[in-house]
Structures are given as structure tokens and as C-alpha cells.
Design goal:
Length: 386
């Protein structure tokens, strides 16, 4: 690829590139760039929303550059305020390190391990906060600059508290870039302030400022809110192949095109030429193959078509043992087919629960034989057993 083609390849789907001239200059230098992406291990699992930035990082790797995945074991204990309307709960260090293990395992489903450096930011931030460096850095950033953040202004207007640790968060993330001498930093659109602070601190430390690149926040499969485990609208990188395929088949046609743009390198004109159902199956297959392999993706598509097109039961139903006469809503909750008994009752009343194919519309004692099939919604199937 020539430089123009490389820039087009690297900036596909990006919202902010600060600045594109700087990116061109760095690419023209011919040196191997150090491209940084930070993630705070605040939960055990990554989802497709995380993979948007990871996929951009992989594009840099494919052009021969080095990816630096910064595990925020220090900053996770502070809590990133970006885009949040309340203070994030602080996790104990043991939980942070436990989550970090799964983060790296899942990130390598997207990244090339041979071109990835894993760094923990406590390495430089622990001495940064205990020495004089923090005080010297605080002299270089004004309170007015920090309080210009849209998320802070919104929280102050609504009377929600902002802790001093949150105010300092952007400085800590910026210091990551200084410590690593990053050439490029990636993040979601809610990270732009933090990325620009990194540029500012690098300049003040005599470094060439990094290029800041942001990607959109992926909308969840509900088509409404950003993808998040807390909203229940996510596709986890560790989801089973059938679950991943099925969830992706549930997205709207409009959302599907956004997923193609942000999560794949497919030619969008070619995708638009396909029938929407075939395009959706292709998307589900591509992403399931990426995280589980081709064989699993083919099997997941076959399972989907068997269950939803031919209205047959899947082959790999889990066995759920329960007592005769248990309330149906309680059984659905215990089987994790619903997040609560109230939600289970709502599924029943909506006609979304079936026993051996027969719709059940009222909650009540469950009577069944071993091997009977209980279905909740479109994707949850169980073989019942006493």
C-alpha cells in the first residue's frame, strides 16, 4: 500500500484523527510505530464494543507496527469518568488482576500476539504519584481545562458528585503516553479528552505528540444504547458460538451495516447488494469465525437455520434439573433464561415460553416428563429432568 492507501485503511470508521497530517508524517518516516490502546479491567469479559478499537489496533499490526495494550491496573482503581453520569465503583486490586488475565486472553482473539506488547500502567504510575512528578504535572494543567469536559459539565449540572481522583484520571492516562513514548493512541469517542491530554503532556515533556484516533461507541444489539454488559445488549467475545451467531442475527438491518463498517473489512457496496437476511448471516458467520474458528461458525449457522428456519430443536440443549410442580417463572429464573422472576413472568405473558412447542401464557406449577423441551424466547432451549 502507498501512504494514501494506508491512511484510508487505518482511518476507516474513525470519528476523530488528531491530526491526519501528523499520521501521514509518522507513516512516511518508515519507522515502526508504537500504537497504544488502554483498557481498565473493570469486568471479566470483553465484548464486540471493545473489539472496535482492537480491530483498528490490528490494522496497524497488519502494516507492521507494534501494538501496546496497556492494562490499567492502576487506573482501574481510580475509575475512568469518561461518558459516565456517576462515579465508578472502585475494585479491589485482586479482582483487577483477575480480570486482567481474561482481558489479555480475549484480546488475542483479535490481536497478533507476536506484534503485541502487554504493559501494566502501575509500572510507571506507582512511582509517578509517590514522587514529585505528579505535582510538577499538575502545574501544567488548569482546573478550567479539566472542567470543560462534557461529562463533567453534565454531572455538575445534575448535581452528581465528581471526585478528585476522577479529575486526575486524564492526567494518569496521559502519563501512560509519556512513559511509553506512544506514536498513536486509540480510544472510543468518549476518550477524546484523555487522548488530547496525552498529546499535551508529551509536548511538555519534549516528545513528538501522539496522533489521537477515536472510533464510535458500538451500539448494542437492542439498537438503542451503547453496547454494555450492564445493559444486557452485548455480544461477548467469550459467548458460545451459537449464542454469538443468534445474537447477531437479532440486530436490525440498519445496525447490521454499522457493524460491518466497524467490525469487518468487507466491501460495503458488495454487502448492500446482498439480500438483508443473507448479509446478516454472513456478518454473524464472519464474527463467529473470528472468535471461534470456521468449523464452529459453520455449525452455528446450521444450528440457527435448523432452529429458526425449520423450527426444529437444537442438538446441543443443556439439561436443566428441577422439581415437579415448581413455578414456571422460578424455573426460568433458575435456568438463567430470565434475569429475574418478574422478567420470567413477562416472557410467559408475552407468549415467549413453550413446553414441547406448546405456548404457555400463564405462570403456574410446571408439570413435565424427563426429556421435555422448555423454550424461553428465541434462543434459550432446555431439556427438563427431575
Amino acid at each position: 500500500m502507498n501512504i494514501e492507501e494506508q491512511i484510508s485503511f487505518l482511518t476507516r470508521g474513525c470519528v476523530d484523527v488528531v491530526n491526519k497530517e501528523g499520521l501521514q508524517k509518522k507513516l512516511e518516516s518508515g519507522k515502526k510505530l508504537k500504537v497504544k490502546l488502554g483498557c481498565d479491567p473493570t469486568s471479566a469479559d470483553l465484548h464486540l464494543g471493545h473489539s472496535v478499537a482492537l480491530s483498528l489496533l490490528r490494522r496497524f499490526q497488519d502494516l507492521g507496527h507494534t501494538a501496546v495494550l496497556v492494562i490499567g491496573d492502576f487506573t482501574a482503581a481510580v475509575g475512568d469518568p469518561s461518558g459516565r453520569d456517576s462515579t465508578r465503583p472502585v475494585l479491589p486490586r485482586e479482582k483487577i488482576l483477575e480480570n486482567a488475565k481474561t482481558y489479555t486472553e480475549q484480546a488475542f482473539k483479535v490481536l497478533d500476539p507476536s506484534k503485541t506488547e502487554i504493559r501494566f500502567n502501575s509500572e510507571w504510575l506507582d512511582p509517578f504519584v509517590t514522587g514529585k512528578d505528579l505535582l510538577q504535572t499538575l502545574q501544567k494543567v488548569t482546573v478550567a481545562q479539566v472542567l470543560e469536559r462534557d461529562d463533567f459539565k453534565k454531572r455538575m449540572k445534575e448535581g452528581n458528585p465528581i471526585t478528585l481522583l476522577e479529575v486526575l484520571y486524564s492526567l494518569f492516562q496521559g502519563q501512560d503516553s509519556v512513559a511509553l513514548k506512544a506514536d498513536v493512541e486509540l480510544g472510543g469517542t468518549d476518550q477524546i479528552f484523555n487522548l488530547l491530554v496525552g498529546r499535551q503532556l508529551q509536548k511538555q515533556n519534549g516528545q513528538e505528540p501522539q496522533v489521537a484516533m477515536t472510533v464510535p461507541l458500538l451500539v448494542g444489539i437492542d439498537g438503542v444504547k451503547k453496547m454494555s454488559k450492564s445493559y444486557g445488549n452485548y455480544v461477548g467475545l467469550n459467548d458460545a458460538p451459537n449464542d454469538m451467531f443468534g445474537k447477531l442475527m437479532s440486530v436490525s438491518d440498519e445496525l447490521m451495516m454499522g457493524y460491518y463498517e466497524l467490525l469487518t473489512s468487507e466491501n460495503l457496496a458488495d454487502i448492500r447488494a446482498l439480500h438483508p437476511m443473507e448479509a446478516k448471516k454472513k456478518l454473524a458467520g464472519l464474527l463467529t469465525e473470528r472468535f471461534h474458528g470456521k468449523e464452529a461458525a459453520v455449525a452455528a449457522r446450521e444450528n440457527f437455520e435448523k432452529v429458526f428456519s425449520k423450527k426444529e430443536n437444537p442438538d446441543d440443549m443443556p439439561v436443566f434439573k428441577t422439581a415437579e410442580g415448581v413455578m414456571l417463572s422460578a424455573a426460568l429464573f433458575e435456568a438463567k433464561a430470565a434475569p429475574s422472576k418478574n422478567k420470567a413472568r413477562a416472557l410467559i405473558e408475552q407468549g415467549a415460553v413453550r413446553l414441547n412447542g406448546q405456548k404457555i401464557t400463564q405462570d403456574g406449577p410446571l408439570s413435565f416428563h424427563d426429556g421435555d423441551v422448555l423454550q424461553a424466547g428465541k434462543r434459550a432451549f432446555f431439556k427438563l429432568a427431575h
